[in-house]
């Protein structure tokens, strides 16, 4: 028979467990991540979502301690979800997972309100540390990513605003990258759950902001930009 004292102790212990909502649209990766998190007695995955709208619904229902969010969600991206969370739940920690190891995405994630950034390549080895750092109120970047962010942002030799892509929105950056990787408008639209017309509108804004003459120049610029980032 459980006494009132033991029930109170259980409640106290349950309050110490970090309740995590995992948001990722890749089922196999999400499953592996959930298993890893649940293998630590300090963590409990209380929900899983594959899209930003589903995630917002579950946050309201489950009241997790924090979220782990895939940057490249289909439809509204992880950055857009982070901004929505910041507006509605300003103190809820968010850790971004991303396939991108470029500092641009880490910086944009932090600016959107994320508390940490981990690449998927290193996630299984560092996500437990990252979660603890974020919950403790600290910003987490892997040592390599932190070094790259410092080198590319804090110690950059260029004047602020010298990189024209800084003018682009998060969605425009995502589309620029996909164009640079050779994806056509229809393929980009399918991948991002947008209409082809919306993608073309974003491409037009990219052209205007980068002062390019036409779609062909946008494609050439995008290829060079992606290539330069992979050096």
CATH superfamily of the largest domain: Response regulator
Number of contiguous helices: 11
Total discrete domains: 2
Q: SSE string, helix = H, strand = E?
A: HEHEHEHEHEHEHHHHH
Radius of gyration based on Cα positions: 20 Å
The residue-averaged pLDDT reads 84
Number of strands: 6
Describe the strand arrangement of the main beta sheet, using strand numbers: 2-1-3-4-5-6
- Global outline: globular
Q: Quote the CATH topology of the largest domain.
A: Rossmann fold
Give the strand content: 5-15%
Low-confidence stretches: 1-13
- What would you call the structural class? alpha/beta
Second-tier CATH architecture of the largest domain = 3-Layer(aba) Sandwich
The amount of helix comes to 55-70%
Distance between the termini: 65 Å
Q: In this structure, how is the largest beta sheet organized?
A: 6 strands, parallel
- CATH top level of the largest domain is Alpha Beta
Structure overview:
By secondary structure, the protein is of the alpha/beta class. The chain has 2 domains: 7-152, Response regulator (Rossmann fold); 164-229, Winged helix-like DNA-binding domain superfamily/Winged helix DNA-binding domain (Arc Repressor Mutant, subunit A, Orthogonal Bundle), CATH 1.10.10.10. It has helices at 4-16, 27-38, 52-62, 78-88, 103-112, 120-135, 143-154, 170-180, 185-192, 196-209, 215-229, and strands at 18-23, 43-49, 66-70, 94-98, 116-119, 140-141. It has a 6-stranded parallel beta sheet with strand order 2-1-3-4-5-6, with helices on both faces. Helix 5 (103-112) links the parallel strand 4 (94-98) and strand 5. Helix 3 (52-62) packs parallel to helix 4 (78-88) and helix 9 packs across helix 10. The protein is globular, with a radius of gyration of 20 Å. The model is unreliable at 1-13 (pLDDT under 50).
